[in-house]
Design goal:
The chain is α/β, with parallel strands linked by helices. It contains ten helices and ten strands. The chain folds into two domains: 6-121 and 304-322, 2-Layer Sandwich (Nucleotidyltransferase, domain 5), CATH 3.30.420.40; 130-299, ATPase, nucleotide binding domain (Nucleotidyltransferase, domain 5), CATH 3.30.420.
């Protein structure tokens, strides 16, 4: 009987340096170093992100191995984020992973970042896994997609954003209201005590099951500026209600398209994935639809929602099981379609 596969996963697609060790589908460690340097700029600065990855990657990988009680020689493979993401950040993680794998004479396994968000559902954490096929709404700062997932290797895009992502809409709306970066979690926090029906914002119409958030961002900006001219303290006086109304609008845009896809596909197993799946308003809206339409829903624990090494490790595990090892000659890529 072969011994269990032990995989190190390395994530460096944006502004989190993360590493995790898994044995088969069980997480032994999951370490993330966040980058506070971007807060003063109101968003991620790519060059600063790649420099921070260079400083953090060795300590983070070392901490992951130590917490897992593993030596580098115990590893069977190293999975790393090949893309999509910030190219400078991806170069740091992929170069380190390939070099380490080559020195240990083990495979370096390239992983699709958004695929990893979905497969985080299959980490053995005591929660039920969604059965194949299932519908997945993947929502992050850079991506918004509706997927049909038929196996760990088979993903079909049913709809996606034609411009901005939902996570970006949250962050930009927060910035317009003067909230600190990252603003999405702040909007979610304030929305919990606000009235979602107090302010009305546009819901753009697009073809098929796609999304659009650029028009909504413009609508929010114009609305805030128009009311600021009447009262300079408008945002401060209405911060909770504005946050609740913005969250409600973004979530309803997502839910309306999700409802349509589930009805058309006839698949009632529905999952959330991506950093925005940590949003309380989105989670509640999904549960409300589940109660209304009889869906079975799946939401990963908070630690597996945002970028993390565990999701890269579990995806690498499934890639190895399928024989998709990859090559040391595969370069990182800022753009990479999931299907």
């Amino acid at each position: 009987m072969p011994r269990p596969l032990i995989v190190l996963g390395i994530e460096s697609s944006c502004d989190d340096t993360a590493a995790a060790v898994i044995k088969e589908d069980t997480i032994l460690s999951n370490i993330t170093a966040t980058q506070s340097v971007h807060k003063g700029y109101g968003g991620v600065v790519p060059e600063l992100a790649s420099r921070a990855h260079q400083k953090s990657i060795i300590p983070v990988v070392d901490a992951a191995l130590k917490r897992a009680k593993m030596n580098p020689e115990d590893l069977d493979a190293i999975a790393y984020t090949r893309g999509p993401g910030l190219l400078g950040s991806l170069l740091v993680g992929s170069s380190f992973a390939k070099s380490m794998a080559q020195s240990l004479e083990i495979p370096a396994v390239p992983v699709h970042h958004m695929k990893a968000h979905v497969l985080a559902h299959f980490i053995n954490d005591g929660n039920p896994n969604p059965p194949f096929p299932f519908i997945c709404l993947t929502v992050s700062g850079g991506h918004t997609q509706l997927l049909k997932v038929s196996s760990p290797q088979e993903f079909k895009i049913l709809g996606e954003t034609i411009d901005d992502a939902a996570g970006e809409a949250f962050d930009k709306a927060a910035k317009m209201m003067g909230l600190p970066y990252p603003g999405g979690p702040e909007v979610d926090r304030l929305a919990e005590v606000g009235n979602p029906g107090s302010h009305s914002f546009t819901k753009p119409k697009v073809d098929g099951y796609n999304f659009s958030f650029s028009g909504l961002k413009t609508n929010i900006l114009n609305y805030l500026e128009r009311n600021r001219r009447k009262d300079p303290d408008f945002v401060k006086k209405n911060l909770e209600d504005l946050s609740a109304s913005i969250r409600h609008t973004i979530v309803e845009i997502l839910m309306e398209q999700l409802e349509a896809v589930v009805k058309e596909q006839g698949i009632k197993h529905v999952a959330l994935a991506g950093g925005v799946s940590a949003n309380k308003g989105l989670r509640k809206a999904l549960q409300d639809r589940a109660d209304q339409f009889g869906w079975s829903t799946y939401v990963p624990p908070f630690e597996f929602c945002t970028d993390n090494g565990a999701m890269i490790a579990i995806t690498g595990y499934y890639e190895i099981k399928s024989g998709a090892i990859g090559s040391l000659h595969m370069p990182p890529t800022a753009r990479w379609t999931i299907d």
